[in-house]
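Module 6 notes. Inverse folding takes a fixed backbone as the condition and produces residue identities as the prediction. Think of it as a translation problem where the source language is geometry and the target language is the twenty amino acids. Below is one complete input and output pair. Work through it position by position during the lab.
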């Protein structure tokens, strides 16, 4: 489980109702409309929160709680729409949904990071765009399907046939939602903790299959040389020619 200020809680049992799965998009329309209206107010609140956090070094509790509730509700709606959960969500985004998000209270933030938050978030936005494109939480091309959208599409057919969402597809959607929630909290100035893309941190109890005949061994320590990172093409060509 992600021990940071933002983490996802998944208590879904993967059971699905074929009727609600078949009409899931239609059933989600009221929530999508309400989410859009709430999002208009939230966008103003984010701007106010940026100025407040920049000057005070900490997000005001009222704004923090309002934006946290908005993020939580949006996670509920997309989890329902993308079949990561089965119950019809509450319109107020109250905690307790099978795919829920917890956001820690206001903490002191670095003002430099607050001031340049949009620039700092660009790499994370690109990752979220690949995960969530095509959902109600797009960070890029809304006409394309991201990983979550593809998992939901495949899951729709399986859930209709088996009345159950496959664990792998459900977890793929949940992982995308976890990263999306972290990014929203970072962009909305609710935390200065950068989004963590590690699936082991995003989701608890990921299934392990040690008996698989094909396994990938990774011993990388995640350390990188800044020079070779900045000039990856040139360095790779030089290595190829020297070899």
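Target side of the pair, the amino acids:
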């Amino acid at each position: 489980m992600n021990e940071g200020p933002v983490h996802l809680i998944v208590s879904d049992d993967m059971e699905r109702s074929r009727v609600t799965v078949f009409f899931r998009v239609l059933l989600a329309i009221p929530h999508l409309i309400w989410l859009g209206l709430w999002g208009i107010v939230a966008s103003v609140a984010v701007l106010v929160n940026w100025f407040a956090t920049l000057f005070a070094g900490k997000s005001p509790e009222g704004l923090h709680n309002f934006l946290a509730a908005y993020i939580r509700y949006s996670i509920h709606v997309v989890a329902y729409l993308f079949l990561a959960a089965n119950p019809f969500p509450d319109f107020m985004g109250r905690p307790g949904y099978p795919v829920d998000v917890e956001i820690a209270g206001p903490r002191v933030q670095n003002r430099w990071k607050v001031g340049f938050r949009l620039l700092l978030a660009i790499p994370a936005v690109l990752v979220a765009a690949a995960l969530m494109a095509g959902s109600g939480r797009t960070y890029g091309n809304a006409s394309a399907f991201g990983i979550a959208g593809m998992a939901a599409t495949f899951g729709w057919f399986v859930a209709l046939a088996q009345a159950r969402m496959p664990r792998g597809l459900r977890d793929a959607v949940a992982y995308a939602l976890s990263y999306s929630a972290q990014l929203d909290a970072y962009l909305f100035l609710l935390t200065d903790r950068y989004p963590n893309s590690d699936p082991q941190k995003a989701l608890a109890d990921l299934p392990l299959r040690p008996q698989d005949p094909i396994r990938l061994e990774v011993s990388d320590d995640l350390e990188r040389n800044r020079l070779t990172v900045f000039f990856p093409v040139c360095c790779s060509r030089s290595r190829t020619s020297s070899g």
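Reference fact for the lab report: The chain is about 55% helix and 5% strand.
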